[in-house]
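Re: weekly structure request thread

Next one in the queue (145 aa):
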Amino acid sequence: MFMASADIQTVNDGNHTLNWSFSLITKKFRITQNDRESIKLKMNWKGDFTITLENGIEYKSVTKGFLKRQTFIENQESKELIEITPKYNWKRWRYNYEIGNSESPQFDLLSLIAVYALNYQSQYLIGIMTACIFSTQFIADFLIK
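Done, posted below.
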C-alpha cells in the first residue's frame, strides 16, 4: 500500500519500471524500459491522469458516474479505447477491474498503467481521509482539555 514504484511485464511490450517523480501539485511518474524513459504518467489533484508515449501520443482518463464509476481511456481525438470498471471485493479489501473495448495496439500496457493509476488514487484518497479523521480527533482532544 502507498508504494510509488512498480514493475510492469507484458508479453507484447516487455518489462517496464514505473517510478515516482516528486511534484507538489501533480503526481508524475516515469515509466522506463531498459533504463530509457518510454512513457510518462501524470495525475492531477482531481484524479484525472494522462499517459504520454515516447512518440508523443497522449491518452487521457475520463471518469463517469458517481456510485457506479467507470474510467475510460481516450486517445487524442477523444475516442474511447479502453473501458475500466472497478468492482470492490469486500472479502479481500481491494478492487477488481473489468477491462473492455480494446482498440489500441498497446492495450495490455495502457490497461496496466491505468489500473496502477486508479489504485494509487484510491490509496491516496484513503490516506487523505485518514489524516483528516486523525487531525479532527486531535483538535477535538486539544479543545476538550
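The chain has one domain: 6-144. Strands lie at 6-10, 14-21, 27-33, 36-43, 49-53, 58-64, 70-74, 80-89, 94-100.
Next request, please.
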